[in-house]
Amino acid sequence: MPDVAQTFIPVGPAVTPVVWTVVRVEALLSAPFGDLIYQAQQIHRQHFAPNEVQLSTLLSIKTGGCPEDCGYCPQAARYHTGVANEALMSVDAVVEAARAAKHSGASRFCMGAAWRGPKQRDLDKVAKMVREVKALGLETCATLGMLKAGQAEQLKDAGLDYYNHNLDTDPALYGEIITTREQGDRLDTLQKVRTAGIHVCCGGIVGMGETRANRAALVVELANLDPYPESVPINNLVQVKGTPLHGTPELDPFEFVRTIAAARITMPRAMVRLSAGRESMSEETQALCFLAGANSIFYGEKLLTTPNPVADRDRILFDRLGIKPMELRKQGVGTG
Fold it and tell me: Within its chain, how far is the Cα of 224 from the centroid?
């Protein structure tokens, strides 16, 4: 393994772009904890205000009944998790939820649907949702599954700012988590999104029984996308009874923080989002994640179908840490 000091990249305006390797990122993840956090903080402060965090709200606009077999997902129709197959929400109901999210302090509103990919009749309705949520002055994001030719352009025309499509895990581990699609299918959708001119929100899930080398490989795949995603959600597995991954040994919280730091170092200008799993994290772990470079969270009491810390609890934690919500104009939609 290379010397850690050679793995860290310099801080300053003349940094040469880095092509990351698994060996190099694994060395980051293995570095002394204080050294790793220090490096992540330096890079974070170069590109972002150190004590601001973007608040996003995620709404499940179509819940349950998904035909995919993702081993982590309670919305898969084949698993018995108690999640019902519901119809697509009405445009009015989604806009009202977005209005409430903005009132609570969110500046980005994400709409998620449990589909393998949207049918055209459903995409027409989602495009209308995007237009009306955008009209409220919110950033818009959607996660609707795999897209067909022309669908990304339709979302772009509706005003969509970001499309979320996670790579989930290390390519070598992918087939053990999901068999109903290949990771290449995900990359194909990401290319459609890029070509349409929509910003990419793409990350993964840790705590699914992977090794540190697997986590390094996921970070490498994200960081070496050209360009890397503007928004990178890092999810800690939320174990739901009835899914194949229920009962997986839980990830060491320090390892999760290390993953956040590696994402910040390898993707310096990305919004690194502390995503699923916050409900079970201590406040101390969340504080370390912010110190490691996380500057975005999902805000509200639910993430699709799983619990999330209520807004009041987040506001109290922010007050204790001296963190302020990031204003929309400071997020710089489209700046990367």
Answer: 17
d(CA 259, CA 264): 9
Q: Which two tokens stand for residue 315?
A: 């506001």
Distant-in-sequence, close-in-space partners of 22: CB < 8 Å, separation ≥ 6: 213, 216, 217, 220
Residues 6 or more apart whose CB falls under 8 angstroms from that of 310 comprise 300, 301
User: Please, what is the Cα angle at 158 between 126 and 54, to 5 degrees?
Assistant: 85
Catalytic residue among 24, 108, 215, 273: 273
Q: Which of 24, 70, 258, 289 is catalytic?
A: 70
Exposure on the CB side of residue 42, measured as CA atoms within 13 A: 15
In tens, the pLDDT along 37-89 reads 999 999 999 999 999 998 888 899 998 888 888 889 888 888 888 888 888 99
Say which DSSP state 278 is in: G
Q: How far apart are CA 299 and CA 58, in angstroms?
A: 8
* 24, 110, 202, 258: the active-site residue: 110
pLDDT at 186 over 80: yes
Question: Which of 226, 240, 234, 220 has the alpha carbon at shortest distance from 306?
Answer: 240
Q: Whole-structure pTM over 0.85, yes or no?
A: yes
Helix 22-29 and helix 212-223: axis angle, to 10°?
120
The tens digit of pLDDT for each residue in 147-177 reads: 999 999 999 999 999 999 999 999 999 999 9
What are the DSSP calls for 280-310, one per residue? GS-HHHHHHHHHTT--EEE-SSEETTEE---
141 is catalytic: yes
Determine contact, residues 117/110, Cβ cutoff 8 Å. no
* Residue 70 is among the residues annotated as catalytic for this protein: yes
pLDDT one-digit tens code per residue, 198-230: 999 999 999 999 999 999 999 999 999 999 999
